[in-house]
Write a structure and sequence with these properties.
Layout: E1 2-8, E2 11-19, E3 22-24, E4 29-32, H1 45-53, E5 57-61, H2 62-73, E6 82-87, E7 91-97, E8 100-101, H3 132-135, H4 137-148, H5 154-162, H6 166-190, E9 194-198, H7 205-218, E10 228-231
Parallel strand pairs: 2-5, 6-9, 9-10
Antiparallel strand pairs: 1-2, 3-4, 6-7, 7-8
Helix pairs in contact: 4-5, 4-6, 5-6, 6-7
Bound molecules: zinc ion.
């Protein structure tokens, strides 16, 4: 959990919490816990935070919170049709359409990290061939280990790529092509103008950006309008 404390000078007035998994903002509970913290399903997050801090607390999915932040005050300020994608421990997605967040009836809209069609590797969610198997931080480390037998973090793989390690570069190129495919699929369904990418793996932006842009140019959205690709501005 990553609480963002809203403060006036000297006085805490409320707390916003972005949590991984499927959450219910109305009740402040986690409905489906993510793989990163399995036993949290049913936990009353806002109740616990309000008890601890004595101020109103609000809960949303972490990627929804990320996207709302970027639309409010970040890289996609005031834009109306945006896919938010976080490349962290896992791959998260959220949709902002017609100037508002579109969570979907189950709170799972925009979850582009867990749609099949990105290969055949097993995913943390139990499915196969999801974008998360190519583009999450732990997958980048795992895909590099598949090729070399050496276990590095995503950041170390990025550093190796910048020093000319061809295996490291190939792992990031596969991630970038996967990200582009996710963008084209989403743009074809909801007609986006922009994609904002955050999360720790976006630290490899100098390597990822040209790969994603080249793949998008080779396979443009059906609208005929290119999708703008930007890195998150508020946090990585
Ligand atoms: Zn998955």
């Amino acid at each position: 959990l990553a609480p963002l404390l809203a403060r006036t000078p000297g006085r805490l007035v409320g707390a916003g919490v972005g949590a991984a998994g499927v959450v219910d903002p109305a009740t402040g509970r986690i409905l489906v816990a993510s793989d990163s913290f399995r036993d949290w399903a049913g936990f009353a997050v806002t109740e616990a935070v309000e008890t601890a801090l004595g101020v109103p607390a609000f809960l949303d999915n972490d990627v929804n919170a990320f996207l709302m932040g970027e639309v409010s005050a970040g890289a996609v300020r005031s834009e109306s049709d945006v896919l938010g994608m976080t490349l962290g421990t896992g791959v998260g997605g959220a949709l902002w359409t017609g100037g508002t967040l579109f969570p979907g009836p189950h709170g799972a809209a925009g979850e582009i990290g867990h749609i099949p069609g990105f290969g055949d590797l097993p995913c943390t969610c139990g499915g196969r061939g999801h974008l998360e198997t190519l583009a999450s931080g732990r997958s980048i480390g795992a895909r590099y280990a598949d090729r070399t037998g050496r276990r590095l973090t995503a950041r170390e793989v990025y550093e190796a790529a910048t020093y000319g390690d061809e295996d490291a570069r190939a792992v990031y190129e596969a991630a970038g092509r996967g990200i582009a495919r996710a963008v084209v699929i989403t743009a074809g369904v909801v007609d986006l103008t922009t994609v904002v990418v955050g999360g720790g793996v976006s630290g490899a932006w100098p390597l990822l950006e040209p790969v994603v842009l080249a793949a998008l140019a080779a396979e443009p959205p059906v609208s005929g309008h290119p999708v703008r690709l930007v890195r998150a501005a508020l946090a990585s």
